[in-house]
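Structure request: AsmA domain-containing protein, Rhodoplanes serenus.
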Amino acid sequence: MQTTLLGLALAMILALLAALVGPHFVDWDGWRETFETEASRAVGAPVSIGGPIAVRVLPTPSLDLGGVSVAAGGTRVSARALRVELALAPLMRGEWRVAELALDAPQLALALDPGGRLAAPSLPAGFDPERLSIDRLVIEHGRAVLADPASGGSLTLDNLTFKGDLRSLAGPLRGEGAFVTGGTLYGVRLATGRPGPDGAVRLRFGLDPLDRPLTVEADGVLRLDTPGPRWEGGVTLARPAAASRGVRAGAAPSGPHELDLRELDLREPWRLTGRLDATPARLSLTQGELQYGPEERALRLAGTADLVLGRFPRLDLAVSGRQLDLDRVIPGTATLHAAAAGPAGGARPLVVVPEAMRRLLATLRPPLPTTARLDIEALTAAGSTLQGLRGTVATTPDGGLRLTDIEARLPGLTQVRLGGTLAAGADLAFTGPVTIESSDPWGLAAWIEGGRADPARPAVGPLRASGEVTADRDRVAIERLAATVDRKSIEGRVAYTRPADGRPARIDAALTAAEIDLEGTTALLRGVLGGSLADWPREAGLSLSAGKAAWGAIEASRVDARLGFDAGGLTVERLTVGDLRGATLEASGRIDTTALAPAGSALQGVAPRGAVTLLVKAPRADMLVALATEIAPRSADELRRTVTGLGPTELRAKLEVEPTIDPVADPAAPSATRAQARLALDGRVGAMRLAATVTATGDPAAPAAARLRFDGTVEAKEGAALAALTGLDRLAAIDRRPATLTLTGGGRLDGDINAKLEIAAGGLQVSATGTGRRDGDRTAGRADLSLTAADLRALALPGAPPLPATLRTRLSLDDTTVRLDDVAGRVAGATVTGHLGLTRAAPRTVSGRIEASEVDAAPLVALLSGAAARRPPPAAGREGSAREGSAWSSEPFGRPAFADLHGRVEIAAARATLWPGLVARDVETVLRLDGTSLAVEGLGGTLAGGALSADATLRTVPTGLAAQARLALVDADLALLLPGTGKAPPAEGRVSLSSEIEGAGLSPAALVGALAGSGAVRVERAQVVGIDPKAIDAGIRAVERGLPLERLAGYVGSALEAGRLAVPSAAGALAIVDGRVRLGPMEATVDGAAVALTAGLDLGADALDARVTLTAPPRDDGPGGRRPELGVALRGPPSAPKRTVDTTALVTWVTLRSVEQEAKRVEAAEKEAKRREAAAAAAAAERAAERLRLEQERQAREQVAREQREQATREQAARERAAREAAARPTIDPAVTGTAEPSAPAPAPVLPPAIEVRPGPVVRSPPATRPAGAAAPSGAAPAAPGQPREAQQQPSSVPSPVRSLLQMFNLQ
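Returned structure:
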């Protein structure tokens, strides 16, 4: 046994030694054909081995082949070396398991057949791919080429390496490697699954470019049984945020505002996901989602992509997004926005967007034709948001873009649609149709300008415009323009040329419109052009034909204009306006600024020459007011007032410019260019004739040094027309005599200019002579001014007598101040002196002092407050007589004279009429102004012999004018203050008063009606005429003597007028409410009689309502302790009130006293009658009570007797019934029954008689004594018919206790 085992061991050792050493002694090259044959059979394609062959058995079976190549149709595979190492143990079990398969420098060439299928050899029939597995697959230095003969394209993978494992030839396969394509090294990760029932293989791979921070992950299904290889699955492309920091590629920006868009791929993280369907002919991406930027400010897009491969490749994109903010994710846009900022600080889209587009196109040039369909809900760019961006963008062969159906919603409720081509290059150029619809054109213009809409801009209605637009860096042109602005249609063309190479900006336009708003259209055009940083054109060629044109408030009809201006001068080829507010206008001419001076003349260089004429006609002069309103808005109201009512107007103006030699010019430069401009104005305005000539001579290059000469005359057949034209009618009254205005003068524009003005009219003479000078921006002048007027109406109230005035002063003015010094003269006989100073610049201030011998306060207050004043209601006193007047004006306050004025003016007057009939003396005050209010401070003087002091304030408020005042008068003569009729004063004494009032109103009447306040009045030592309390006693005695009451008022009135009331002292309160002054009551006691005064004064209606109440001393015979009263009423105007004696209270007192006396007599008689009636009623009651008692006793006796009879009857009946029952009972024999004979039964008890239940009589108490005629009590029983009341009231006999119970339960 041992020998046998030893032999086997030796045999095995020899076999192993032979397996280990033997292959080294075998020439395997001789077996090349065998290897090639077996390999061809295994792979199903011809296999050739051109290199060495090596085989080993131990330690593991292995095979090394060199120069291996396989060719099958369009597929060719070769390798420089192939090494296969088999696992020994599985091989001994009959399984093919490759421990390692290594390919060195494999070359794989794959091609697609015309049907798109992959031309690759198939496994031989009957080969089981599950029998072969590879534990380790190594590929190094490989190369793979995929060719498509149909398109001529190919994909090459160089330096291919791979390490992995293959469980079977059917999969799964896992591993990783790398390859180089397009000069870029990629790392690859690969994993496949086993084929499914449908032949699909799950394939997952990842790509990592090693020279950029990018990862590609794909997971899907690979199908090889389709007409061509097809892969479907999810794909993710991403650049991590960490890898993007500090990474930058490409050259640096070329300028400080250059936007380097190449940084888009390197500086921000992004991620692209979607579903990819890949075939050799097409790559389709669906459910695509792109996130660009970090999470907190990411830009998110969704869409699809379709890449068509082949001979004519193309890329179709469909991109959609919701909220895209390019300003936040594109680096460098903030710098570009700052460079293109508008006036309001916002970026101008027409600058930012084209520049960004230019740089984007210059950087992102797709290598193949690309079409993109856009659907963006909101896109933020250049600091503003575009909504609803939709359309199609396609690349062109020249690198530009073709835009189709592009539309978006812009700010200003604007919808824009455009198409055409966008050429790329150094500058962008766009050509194509554009349509814009905007409900808020100013909002659109503000967005273009990079700011907010200006609310002061003229209103413009909806805008709709379309046309063929051509735009590049130098020019923007719109051909076939069709626009509607505010429902006004415009057609034509517009072209704008930007300034360049010393050439100024220019605009050319030819427009036709039935109606056009020139102001709104021009402002809108300027706003749009301003958004592109365009200069306002300094050259233009304009043609306009409009049925109706408007500029602000100016409207014109039948406008035909063709004019232009440039560096060569101004040309008005034709300008006609058929209807300009009723006026017509014609202009034509040319001024050439490029003409040379005539040869041989003393002039040299350019000498402008030419003429322009203008003719204006209007049926009425006020038709030109609208034009003047736009030219001189500050003078519009004044001009409208002055020209209203003037007749037909025809004005001719001609401006002529020609070269000349100025004889006053510098003799050292005799050949210097000189020009003379002459403006001649001639025509008529209503009944006035105008003729004026202004001539300026000088160097056109220095117009400020020109010499000026002017001469003008205005002649009017009636002075009133000239006064209305110059505004002198507000200053003085002018009659209908002829009037003349002459203005002459001359001088240098940069030196002194002398002028003389003379106005001669009926009732007015004005003369002014002075000198003015303009030095740079400063203007100064002085003049001696004199004025003589027959009626200076500016200081008088309507209806007042003429106010003659003669004044003279020295007037001096400059840019900031106007001064009137040495003012002296007389106004209505009163002397006036003083000085005034006024600043012209805001805030305007006034200062000075005015002294007058007499002042009327009413017109002065009306002038200062801007009221259409009327003279206050009349009054008469000791120092004034009554005058006719009217109520307060209800016209609203005009602009107060103190509006926008600041300063302080002192006023002093020897006499001042405060109110008609009230004259104060030695009045001094200070007027202080603060721009919105006028304050009268420290007014002091004497009034009616008393000390007067007051302060007042007038202030402008939204409701008109507000007033506040404080007034105090101490120890004044009452007789001088009270109005009278020229006779003796109604009262004498001394009075002191104080009050504070305030109010506000839109007009004088409203202000007076709104006055409110309070105050106090006190009188001392007063003597009142026509009032005497003794008149009350006289009237009572007269009535007692038989005077009829209806004649009492006349009797008492005569007694009052003959008397006089002396009041030592009295005081009362003042209350002012709604313009009504209430006084009182003022109460005093005189000789035991009470005197009370209440008064009311309606300031608005000038109505007095006063009442004096006299109450006599107490009287013993006064009704109810009352005291007799008597009233005196004063109603009507304060100057002449109507006196009425009111005896109502006195008549009432007398009547009540008579009634009271009669009532006392009647009351005594009634008391006696009532006493007698009461005694008679008591006696009758006693008799009735006695009768009732007797009747009740009789009934009680009858009742007792009746009950006794009934009781006896019942007892008799009971005894008889008992006897009958005893007789009817049988007799029983005791012997028979065996019982003893019972004793006789006791007799049955006698039952009481039957009870009869019936209602019993009601017992009532005796009735109380009632007065005769009084009604019986409500509970009394009614009397039976035919019985007397006394019998019915008698009770029955007194009931027993049993009967009382029966009666209680109402039983009978």
